[in-house]
Amino acid sequence: MKSLFILLTCLSLSTIMAQEPPRLEKPNEHHKHLRKMTGTWDFKSKFHLPSGQIIEMAGIEIAKMQPGGFWLISDYTGKYMGIPFHAHSLIGYEAHKKKYSGTWTDSFDSVLVILSGTCSKDGKTITIVGKGYAPVQKREITYKHVYETKDTNTKIYKLYYVEAEKEELIMEFASKRRPPKLNLNSTNKDSFTHEITGPFGSAYY
Description:
The chain has 205 residues and is mainly beta. The chain has two helices and twelve strands; from the N terminus they run ααββββββββββββ. It has helices spanning 2-18, 29-35; strands at 39-48, 54-65, 71-80, 83-94, 99-106, 113-119, 125-134, 139-151, 154-163, 166-177, 195-198, 201-204. The strands form two sheets. It has a ten-stranded antiparallel beta barrel. Strands 11-12 form a two-stranded antiparallel sheet. The chain is globular and about 65 Å long.
């Protein structure tokens, strides 16, 4: 009996080990568009007030892909008229919907905006739209977020209110990619991807 139990156990383990792992979804070309937006960015922004006044702000965005490569997570920090400003956005492409999806939150209110949309054929412009409560207007309105990649080191973000097919620009960011820090003292290049060789040796980053 003991021998039969051991034999059945071995057969069961062999069957489990022989099974193929589940076929998981893999990132596609849309997720590659999002990956190009990762990095540390210095931005200059403008807030367009209903009065016509423009408030400028400078800050930093840190953007990275969630493990798995499907979702771009961005965190923004800055100061708006001396008040600390923090924002958090999430953008991804849902293959089964064939649409981009995203969310936006910031430290100025308790509103979570949920958005969806598409990108241009060249993948450089992502436009997502959604409804959310506007604390100033004290009612729900439509928000339109536009993310445009100008080149490897430059991108533009614009936020609009949309009412009766009329768009009102309320916020815009112009971002420049921050150059990576060089480690001039390191002799180990295994953890780096680029090498610069000069008269004083090699630097890796």
